[in-house]
Structures are given as structure tokens and as C-alpha cells.
Amino acid sequence: MSVRAALALILSSASPALAEDLQLAFPLDCTLGQDCHIQQYMDRDPSAAAQDYRCSGLTYGGHKGTDFALPDLAAMAAGVTVRAAAPGVVKGLRDGMQDGAPLAQVQGRECGNGVVIDLGAGWETQYCHLKRGSLSVVEGQEIAVGDAIGLVGQSGKAAFPHLHLSLRHNGEPVDPFDPEGSSCDVEPSKTLWQDTPPYRPGGLITLGFADHVPTYADIKAGNANRGTLPTNAPALVIYGYSYGTQKNDVLRLSLAGPNGTVIEKDVQLEKPQAQSFRAIGKRAASAAWPAGRYDGTVTLLRDGRVIDEKTGRLTVQ
Ligand SMILES: [Zn+2]
Q: pLDDT tens digit string along 183-220?
């Protein structure tokens, strides 16, 4: 082994004393924009107001990490693995807390089932809201990057299934998207990510179809969507489930069938919402719905610009 190779080996196994040595890997087995999304970034505003690292509003006051959310409870039940974003030693953990417990029961234990990993040199990561009984590490265990830690859950203070990932240096929260807190448009090379997840200022979680306006509980559970409806369905409904929307955003919903457009509408959103859904539909006329393929499109617009769009297919038979 050359001196240079030996040196590189020593350096790579050393503690990340400098932020430049720290590189976080993506901490979940999911694909952003497809089966997970970043719901909230770290709050960079020391005042009572809140601002994410792009000086936008995808955060809330005092939020000290990044929230990676699953689309619904069905995805959580199926199991999405949480993986170590950086190597280290398990410093502490907690398991046994119920997923989806009332907030009053989680006071002082807001992280829920969680793991803290000591990265050395004052750095640590914390993984929160893991699924009860899913933790696959023990205290003192050495962890390599990418090792499975547990599954995404909804334990602790969590209104929806997600992973909260915190990075701290000497106890102080550090935003891996902009560790120096320098600007509203940090260069990707200055983040602490191996591959910086692209910024999305809100978007669409899912779209779906039903024969009635679904309940919000059914959408959050992941059992509202019907891929197939009968020709005598009482109505055809399309819904869009969105996150990080702002006042005056527009949700454009459309459904087109074998005979052309069934329904199409722009719905203006009246207030900022972390998550919400909108549905439009058409009641059945006296004749049956034409059998065949129906295409649904949901588009989220902000200031007239498309910020996200999803399409889906309904079969009527
Ligand atoms: Zn969080």
C-alpha cells in the first residue's frame, strides 16, 4: 500500500472534525417525489417567524431537523427502511412508543422511538418517529453508512408517518442543506449531503379516484384510491393530496374519459397548509359512464407556474 493510500485510509476512518469531512447519505429506502417527500426543513429564522434554507416557508418555528414524509399509513405499514446517513456509534435509543399516539401522551418524548448516533468530534445525528418495535440497532453498536436502523413510523410528536433527521455539532443544530447559513441559494457543493436532495417548495403527495368525496382519514390511511369503478358508479371523483401549499396556490384537477373531458377545475387555496386535499367530481347522469380508460391529472400552480404535477389512470368497466 502506498503512503498516500494508507493516509487516505486513516483520514477516511477518522472522526469528521470539520464539517467539510461530513457527508450525509440519503437516509431512507424511498425516492423523493415518488414515494416520499421532504415535508419540512430546518427553521433558520431565530425569531418567532420560520424560514427554510431557501428563505421560503417549508418549515415551522423552532424545527431543528429535516422531515422526510411517507405518502400515507399504508406505506408505513408496508415498511420503509431508515438507514444511517453517516457512520458512528449508537449513543442512545428508545423504542416501545405507540405510532400515532395522542400528542398529550408524548410530552418530553417528542422524538418518539429514536436513535442518536455519535459521529465523533462533537457531531451527532438523531433519527426520530421510528415505528414501534422496528429498531434494529443496540447501544454502543458501530454503525456504517447505509446500515438499517429501523423503519419509518409515527411515534412521538408526529401528525403523519415520517423520519425526522437532526444533525448537531456540540449540541447545536446544523442544517445539512446550508451548514454555514449563508444565503438563500446555497451552492450544492457547500451542503453536507453526498447528493443534495433537490429543493421543492411544496408539491403533490398523491392523487386518486373514488365514487364519492373521500374522507381525509381515508386519504391519510392510503385506502381512498380506487383504480377501477363500475359503469353505474354514483359519481366519478378525482382528488389531489398536497403538501407545503401557500395562500393563493391553485390545484388544477382534471379527469378525461373515452368521450373527452368529464370534469376540470381550478381550485384556489385560501391559506397555507402543511398538508391538505381537494376533490372534484361529477354525479352520474341517467346513462351509465362509458367504459374504458380515464386519465386524471393534478397540477399544483404557484404564481401561475407549475410546481408539481401527477397523473393517474382509472378504469371504468
Ligand atoms: Zn421534524
A: 787 777 789 999 999 999 999 999 999 999 999 999 99
- The pLDDT of residue 2: 47
Mean pLDDT value across residues 180-185? 79
Residue 7 lies in a domain: no
Whether residue 97 is found in the same domain as residue 207: no
Q: How far is the CA of 61 from the centre of ligand 1 (A)?
A: 11
Question: Which of 92, 85, 193, 83 is CA-nearest to residue 147?
Answer: 83
Residues with a beta carbon under 5 angstroms from ion ligand 1: 65, 67, 164
Clarify whether residues 133 and 165 are in a common domain: yes
Residue 209 lies in a domain: yes
Do residues 40 and 176 share a domain?
Answer: yes
Among 151, 132, 137, residue whose Cα is nearest residue 88: 137
Q: Residue 139 belongs to a domain with what CATH number? A: 2.70.70.10
CA 118 / ligand 1 centre spacing (Å):
19
Residue 286, pLDDT score: 85
Query: Which cell is 144 given?
Result: 456504517
Other Cβ atoms closer than 10 A to 113: 27
In a 3-state reduction of DSSP, which class is residue 105?
helix
Q: Residue 191: how many CB atoms within 10 A of its CB?
A: 19
